[in-house]
Predict the 3D structure of the following.
Amino acid sequence: MTLVVGAVFAALLLCFIFIIRLYAVVKKQKPQPGAKGPVAVLVVAGSGGHTTEILRLMECLSSSYTPRYYVIADTDKMSQEKICTFESSRGQSDSESQFTIYRIPRSREVRQSLSSSVVSTLHALQYSLPLVFRLRPDVVLCNGPGTCVPLCVAGLLLGILGMKKVLIVYVESICRVQTLSLTGKILYPISDYFFVQWSALRDKYPKSIFLGRTV
Amino acid sequence: MKTVFVTVGTTSFDELIETIISSEATQALKARGYGRLVLQVGRGALLPDADSCPNIRLEAFRYKNSLAEDIEQADLIISHAGAGSCLEALGAGKPLLVVVNDKLMNNHQLELAKQLHVDSHLLYCTCSTLTETLRTMDLSVLRPFLPGQPQNFANFLDKALGIK
């Protein structure tokens, strides 16, 4: 009997610590990894339009963002080529071009139902956790494909466990004018910098950052 | 000869293809000086033959790796409301008429087309008003669509992350 009470007590305590840590990680002052040297960035490239948009953003990031880890969904055939073309085009200005492409299972196909998305996202999390724990990026940069959810959760977990505060930077797609995407809604509370492309969204979501259209 | 390029992206939109090759629509195009019509029909059931339209020079295909060349050659682009197609056409600086598929409800892709219409970057109609729009449209009201500024994003992030 005392064993059961003890176990329940321990579980509750763990939950409590987890929530406190979650709150601390999301709310605490944001680190400035760039002050110490190059910033390792994990870039989630989705598919089609998402990849085009995120590469537009990457074009303007300096070589201080090194190394660059790209993660794509394993069903995505186009993105790898786009990323390689993009990276070789910046090669000239960036003498030590450093990038790697990783593949993980897709967490959500377009129009997949919510419940089956949860299952496939958990499946993707199995691959995301070891990847993010191994790479330990300073920043996760993403813009909306479902694949970013497990990767951002993995980044958040690094912070909760006190191993490393990973900054989550989310840029909502230019397609979203009035409403956030499902991924945007999930990541809004846990992201450190949340960018939107249209002023109507900034008005609805006070934490979001609006710099005009950036892609 | 002025060219119209019709694109439906990776979807199908047979109603648009059917309407644009109708004799009313092709006559309206001809009256405005368009002599060549290129159709990208995606996975639609309809892939019209080159000789199915007596009024106009017709070409049709399903997909290409890149539509950049067809967009570049076009004097007018007629597109479904897909964000990718809209942005590609506007990015190339071409006049764009978006035909909304009113059979697809609550499609989030419409958000962008509607906003771009409000900002006068494109014209907007449905299949039932397409022919009338082709007759009466005034392309001079369209305002150029300037590219976004990723540099603003980079500057913000540099500052936030303490990069000098």
User: Anything to note?
Assistant: Chain B has a mean pLDDT of 93. Chain B has one domain: 2-161. The first helix of chain B runs from residue 14 to 20. The interface with chain A takes residues 83-84, 87, 108-109, 111-112, 114-115, 148-154, 156-158, 160-164 of chain B (CB under 8 Å).
